[in-house]
Amino acid sequence: MSVVVIEFVTLDGIVSDPDGSAGTSYGGWAFRHGPEAVAGDKFRLGRVLDEGVMLLGRTTWELFARLWPGRDDPPPQAGGPPAARLNAVPKLVASRTAPDVSAWSN
Predict the structure, then answer these.
(1) In which residue ranges of the chain is pLDDT below 50?
(2) Under a CB-based contact definition with an 8 Å cutoff, are residues 93 and 58 in contact?
(3) One-character DSSP codes across 9-49
(4) Domain range holding 99?
(5) What pLDDT, on a 0 to 100 scale, did the predictor assign at position 78?
(6) What CA–CA distances, in Å, run from 1 to 4, 81, 97?
(7) Are both 99 and 68 inside the same structural domain?
């Protein structure tokens, strides 16, 4: 068994508020150049999402649960759309408080 860690971080070490929804001063860095910059399977997550389990913290879970369930991206390549894979992969949430897990399947 192996553990694969996927972390979104800028070159100068910023990890918070990637989409800008929290309104922080450095927020929105992940999509600053438009959604095309992260579209498709540029991070080569396909196999990981097909065979693995996502482990998310509560805050990331809540952000993803707002963004991903309604997405239906067109297939960028063979292997299917990333939204379908993210929505289908089994998910676990590490938290001291229970989030509303009904907001996102699996």
Answers:
(1) 77-80
(2) yes
(3) --TT---S-TTSTT--TTTTGGGTT-GGGG-TTTT--HHHH
(4) 43-103
(5) 42
(6) 10, 26, 28
(7) yes
What backbone phi and psi angles, to 5 degrees, belong to 88? -90, -25
| Torsion, Cα of 13, 27, 49, 88 (10° steps) | 160
Going by C-beta distance under 8 Å and a sequence separation of 6 or more, which residues neighbour residue 27?
A: 16, 17, 18, 19, 20, 21
Residues 86 and 47 in one domain: yes
pTM of the model: 0.63
Residue 87, H or E segment: helix 82-88
- Do 103 and 65 touch, CB atoms closer than 8 A? yes
The mean of the pLDDT values for the chain is 74
Q: Report CA torsion sign: 66, 72, 77, 79.
A: positive
Same domain flag for 79 and 47: yes
9 and 58 part of one domain: no
